[in-house]
Amino acid sequence: MIRKEINKISEVGKALISVEGNPGVALNHVVELLHADSNQSLSFAKAINISEDSTRFQVFNGTQGLSTRTKIRIHERPLTAGFSKNMLGRSFDGIGEVKDGGPEIIYEKQLSTRLDTLNPTVRLVPKQALWTGIPMIDVFNTLVKSQKIPIFAGPTEPYNKLLSQIAQGAKADVIIFAGIGLKFDEYQYFKDELSKSGNMDKTIMFSHLAGESQIKGLMLPDVALSVSREFADNGKDVLVLLTDMTNWSNILRNVANYQDMIPSLQGYPGSLYSELAKRYEVAADIEGAGSITIIGATTLESLEDPVPDNTGYITEGQFFLENGKLKLARSLSRLKQQVNGDTRNDHRAIMTAMASLLAEAEKAYEAAEVGAANDPFSQKLLGYRKDFIEKVEEPFGKPVQLEEALDLCWDILRDHFDPAETGLSTKLIDQYWNK
Amino acid sequence: MMKNKRTGTLISIQDSLVKARFYGDVIMGETAEITVDGKKLQAEVLQITTDPKNEDAGIAEMQVFEDLTGAKIGDTVEFKQDALSVLLGPGLLTSIWDGLQNSLYPLSEQDSYLKPGLKAPALDEEKLWEFTPTAEIGDALKGGDIIGWVMEGRFEHKILVPFTIGTCILESIIDKQSLTIKEVVAVVKDEQGIRHELKLVFRQAVKSPIPFKDRSIPNKTISTGVRVIDLLAPVSYGGTVGNPGPFGAGKTVMQHSLCKYALADIIIMAACGERAGEAVEVFKDFAELSDPSTGESLMNRMCIFGNTSSMPVAAREASVFIALTVGEYYRYQGYNVILLADSTSRWAQALRERSGRQGDIPGPEAFPMDIPDQIKGMYQRAGADSATGGSLTFIGTVSPAGGNFQEPVTQATMDATGGFWGLSQDRADAKKYPAIDPLVYTTSVYDSFISWEDREKILQILNEANGIDQTISTIGLKKVPVEKYELYQKGQTIDFCVLQQDAFHELDACTRPERLQIINQTVQKLIDQPMHYSTEGMDDEEVKEMIKSKFDNLRQWWKEWNTYAQDEEQIETLAIKIDQFILQEEYAS
Predict the structure, then answer these.
(1) pTM, whole model, 2 decimals?
(2) Could you report the predicted ipTM of this complex, rounded to two decimals?
(3) Which residue has the higher pLDDT, A4 or A149?
(4) Residue of chain B whose alpha carbon sits nearest to that of A327
């Protein structure tokens, strides 16, 4: 027997409620919670486990203020995200409700938030560079349209500043900002930066602030990415800024814990990898349509933490920010080979040569700390390392064009080494060394 | 034979795990279809119990291979009797499927997105194949016997009696003609008197291996084109290798190199829980590249299972078994097959997610307790068959959490495989690719392209150079004697010029055995040749500086030598320079 309204909640816990028996609700479908006496709408919730004996829901607005008398009204549909071009320039919460105090939006359509996988055969192999004006990215780890790549950084690093700087440079038709567990000043920072650069009218902000309902934070990427996908399906190049996925993963961990799931590493559920992958894999260049590029932020204490570790296996590389510098050693763009063969003829070679010299230099630096870098070549390496950090790993200088950045690399090599010490071919040395 | 329709109804739904109540009989491991909003979703039975609420009924626990959004208590389950299986027959090559063998191109005509319930045939049902019979009416046959063949590209694809059929007699067989995989080519009668219609294709359960005819020890080395592998850690046709590495250490580039350059008849790629973009690169860009042994498109020797990371997790486990079964099928036909599974860790994680949901008591890092046995069982399906001349080589990548090789899946893989290519974070950070640590690997081949003694000498000098390198970092170059420093420079040169290889350079990317042997001769000379320099009036530090600058030159020539083909004229000049350096002809007087 299917009831459209349920009058008895058997359990109210953290973020979750349960009812006895099977009220006829389907998996992942939404229900509305109503005040027992006034019928005032309190929240929506989603069915996550259902059986003959009981049904469990995630409550979007949190469970504070609910009681066993709270009424449940069944809506026979999964969570959808409203879509309208009028959303541009506006701000929303994790389930797509207007958050900026502006007028309600009249939606053109309701989108599924299931994030079905794109059939791999309609993906294009990405071939178009997105230039950022940041030498460490453009020369060493070129960003490519449709890439999914996070910034890995300690919690006190200026990762939001970097994210915002990359966003301003990348030429996207639509920017979707998806912020989870933000502090208010972070939210305001992005809003100000996007407005200052004149990008606000092509931006939609979805944000969840720290302390707001966890379930809304958990749902946020799905809503934001569904909206992104609708733009891309209609031919737009979309840039998604996803920050901070560690906050999101921590909510996932909390909710898994409330559901008594068996934890795998550091309390995270065994499905962490699949859950992160489901979101990041939305990035794509779609045949006959637009594209979605995802640049995320993942804060970390250590690279071995489950969140950055799983993320690294999912994303197409990462930008590693440490002491305010974009570090070469742990940064990687997996798609760079798709684009850096068609630029200047020295691009790949200079990238490889400078990287192996820097690795040598790091060893010399460690040796120097114990007074062991006492030979002339080690001294050269130390000088090179200093220049490299100051001139190449600095992400916040004035924007540099690729050619200029490559010339800068030659300048640095010339200042410190003899040609044969660089490992570069004689052909390139002849062409560029005395330029 | 008519089967009675056996059905049940859902009584519990949790992520991809469901329970259904049924009356009658359900078989462990059989597949089922769950009807949700009119769509049929595929599932597999994992556990069967009696129903505590109803003594006439049973409860079947199942994992569902598709998203269950919209499923309700009471939805109908139909049990299909057959275990999870794969369709085998002509047309497998060049195919691109999801993890359950739905063909992806036909699916994309239905929708750009893989929506639950969408299905597409595994093999082209319209294509005509010219069948040539070889068996004759009255022949006594059994499962696995050949009744004829078709040409699949350049491969003679044998048509087999399905392995599930026992001893039987061939009652009829068609003459040579073109037909599709839906048509009947022969009829056999088994010992129970039951007639079976044979087609060009048959279904094979994926968890029961296709047998060997005469299993043998893998003893012939594969030319992979990757120097560090072919010199130091070779793999044989029919061998097994685990390839672990932290993210960013170059597993993907390694897999792509093997796809492009490894000498084998057939390459099967099981993209298991990995990035979709990488599988796409393989089937879109690699189609443009040519097969090293035939010059045809690389895709003509490949098939791909693209069960990528955002696809339903339950299908991940299935995808590896399905790919293995296709590999065994071609091995049985006498072909050398390489299966690249990327990544076996994602496969193990799929088992972990499932066992967690089932409430099993977890083993280390919450993996199922029996994960080492499951991994071993999987790798054991690789092997060589001396009766058919075929082989199935299994190269599995491992993605250890935190890059830590002590974690359960890496450990179990080391135990299960004959070879182990450990990718090192330090080498990757220094952009020394391929980042296989020459000092952290194992191999169990019985044959290789260079002699065992030569190989030992290379390893020894790399080991010594590594030791000196550590000395230099801790006490400084000054304390290192000149002759040790020279040894260090030799080791560095072998590492930089031979072991490191540019996977994106059209020539450097692949080195064949003939060229590898030339390189080895030079390497051996370099190792053996004692160096003499005129060092009059120089102190030790100046001598070391001189040695370094000479070796810098050597490395530059050698690196350039790597980028020329054997028949280009520049290569001769460079080879002479390298030889003169090593034999010290310019310093001899």
Answers:
(1) 0.92
(2) 0.91
(3) A149
(4) B429
Give me the long-range contacts of B400-407 (CB less than 8 A, separation at least 24).
B400/B244, B400/B245, B400/B246, B400/B345, B401/A265, B401/A304, B401/A306, B401/A309, B401/A310, B401/B365, B402/A303, B402/A304, B402/A309, B402/B246, B403/A304, B403/A309, B403/B245, B403/B246, B403/B247, B403/B249, B404/A304, B405/B244, B407/B365
Summarised one tens digit per residue, pLDDT across range B433-489 is 999 988 776 777 667 899 989 999 999 999 999 999 999 888 888 889 999 999 999
| Mean pLDDT calculated for residue range A321-339 | 93
- Contact: B366, A376; criterion CB under 8 Å: no
pLDDT band at B581 (very low <50, low <70, confident <90, very high): confident
- B151 φ, ψ (degrees, to nearest 5): -90, 120
Between A25, A123, A426, which is nearest B276 by CB?
Answer: A123
Work out the angle between the directed axes of helices A245-258 and A272-280 (0-180°, nearest 10): 140
Q: What angle do CA B147, B206, B362 make, to 5 degrees?
A: 165
By C-alpha distance, the chain B residue nearest A76 is B70
pLDDT score for B383: 96
**Rounded CA separation A172/A104 (Å):** 26
Contact by Cβ (8 Å): A292, A240: yes
Q: Hey, are the CB atoms on B401 and A309 less than 8 Å from each other?
A: yes
Q: Does A234 touch chain B (CB under 8 A)?
A: no
Between positions 344 and 383 of A, the ones with CB within 8 A of B are 348, 352, 355-356, 359-360, 363, 366-367, 370-378
Quick check: B273 and A29 CB within 8 A?
no
Q: How many CA atoms lie within 13 A of A67 on its CB side?
A: 4
Half-sphere exposure of residue A18, counting CA atoms within 13 Å on the CB side? 16
CA distance B493 to B508: 16
**Nearest CB to B552: which of A261, A289, A421?**
A421
Q: Is the pLDDT of residue A1 over 60?
A: no
Question: Which A-chain residues 159-198 have CB contacts (< 8 A) with chain B?
Answer: none
For B315-361, write each residue's pLDDT tens digit.
Answer: 888 899 999 999 999 999 999 999 999 989 999 999 998 888 888 88
B93: exposed, middle or buried (Cβ count in 10 Å: 0-12, 13-18, 19+): buried
Q: How open is the CA angle B452-B456-B459, to the nearest 5 degrees?
A: 140
Conformational region of residue A75, where left means phi above 0, alpha means psi within -120 to 50, and beta covers everything else: beta
Answer positive or negative: Cα dihedral of B329, B331, B335, B339: positive
pLDDT computed for residue B446 by the predictor: 67
- Model pLDDT, residue B580: 86
Encoded amino acid at B159, one letter: I
Q: Is residue B161 predicted with pLDDT exceeding 70?
A: yes
Residue B99 has pLDDT above 60, yes or no: yes
Q: Which of B3-7, B344-348, B410-414 has the lowest mean pLDDT?
A: B3-7
Task: Measure A329 CA to nearest chain B CA, in Å.
Answer: 5
User: A375–B310: do the CB atoms touch at under 8 Å?
Assistant: no
Q: What is the mean pLDDT of residues A284-307?
A: 95
Amino acid at B503: A
Tally of CA atoms within 13 A in the half-sphere of B378 that contains its CB: 30
Residues contacting residue B201 through CB under 8 Å, at least 6 positions apart? B87, B88, B89, B90, B123, B181
- CA A12 to chain CA centroid, Å, is 33
Bridge partners, residue B305, by sequence: B97, B270
Distance CA A208, CA A96 (A): 11
**Over 90: is that where the pLDDT of A434 sits?**
no
Q: Which residues of B touch A425 (CB under 8 A)?
A: 556, 559-560, 563
Set of chain A residues whose Cβ sits within 8 Å of the Cβ of B403: 304, 309
All residues at 6 or more sequence positions from A156 whose CB lies less than 8 Å from its CB, including other chains: none
For A426, other C-beta atoms within 10 Å of its C-beta total 13
